[in-house]
Amino acid sequence: MYSRRADIHARFDGQQRGGIATPAKHSIVIVFTGEEGEEHGYSDRWRDDGVFEYFGEGQVGDMVMQKGNRAIAHHAANGKSILLFKIAPRGVVFEGEMICEGYQVRPAPDRLGNLRNAIVFELRLVENVIERVSDLPTTNGTLATLRERAFAAAKPAPAKSTSSTTVFERSRDVRDYVVARAVGHCEGCSQPAPFVRANGVPYLEPHHIRRLTDGGPDDPRFVIALCPNCHRRVHSGADGAAYNGDLRDKMKAIEIA
Ligand SMILES: [Zn+2]
Ligand SMILES: [Zn+2]
Fold first, then answer.
1. What is 4-128's CATH number, 2.30.280.10, 3.40.50.720, 3.20.20.70, 1.10.10.10?
2. CA of 110 to the centre of ligand 2 (A)
């Protein structure tokens, strides 16, 4: 249980009112869900398939894809982590880090009770995306086609009606490309991958250098393939933050063309 004002805005800044806060100096988008919203015609809910339907911002008239709504749709492309909090009587409760896999536009009442077009985001817990993407990296296709797919996967979350790929496929496309790009060597320490997977693909782990957690679609310019040692170092080492800075510098040379 956190205090929205003392624990969130005092430390990270960002809009103190409304459902979506976009602190300018941090790579996070904070979204709040709760009872309050229902008076305004919002009915956020968890679906059986693990998707959390989250109504965007805009209390009267059609919702538009700007400000907070745009921040959610573009979070992967912009390297921001979505943090979901549930509003409780005495504060806010952290629900988890989310990936936006797309959105729907559907009629829903606004604050005045008039029907309007609401943007309903489909969010999924990042840990569930990582779980489902544990299938073996493929070696299907040339590096150029893998790269093309990875960059396509990092585009802003699509409208439901225009999307043909799932968030799992997008996440996998990014991983497969960075592993192929590394050609069997850790992009951190340049050592060969310590072993190969069952299908012969060298074992390397995708690390997201500008996000809080790994997994989900991201711009391949900000995802580096690491050996397990380098990966543990960046997350658990005393010099982890500094090492992540080194990796950022390395990425500038790795993904230029
Ligand atoms: Zn390494
Ligand atoms: Zn990592």
1. 2.30.280.10
2. 41
Q: What is the pLDDT along the chain (257 residues), one digit of tens a residue?
A: 999 999 999 999 999 888 999 999 999 999 999 866 666 667 899 999 999 999 999 989 999 999 999 999 999 888 899 999 999 989 999 999 999 989 999 999 998 989 999 999 999 998 887 766 556 666 677 888 888 888 888 888 778 766 677 888 888 888 889 999 999 999 999 999 999 988 888 999 999 998 878 877 888 999 999 999 999 999 999 999 999 999 999 999 998 75
Report in angstroms the alpha-carbon separations of 200 from 39, 99, 206, 227: 55, 30, 17, 16
What protein residues have CB closer than 5 angstroms to ion ligand 1? 186, 188-189, 227, 230
Q: Ligand 1 centre and the CA of 209: distance in Å?
A: 14
Q: Which ligand is nearest to the CA of 185?
A: 1
Distance from the alpha carbon of residue 195 to the mean position of ligand 2, in angstroms? 19
Domain definitions of the chain by residue range: 4-128, 135-254
Paired sense of beta strands 28-33 and 81-88, if any: parallel
Residue 218 to residue 208: CA distance in whole angstroms: 8
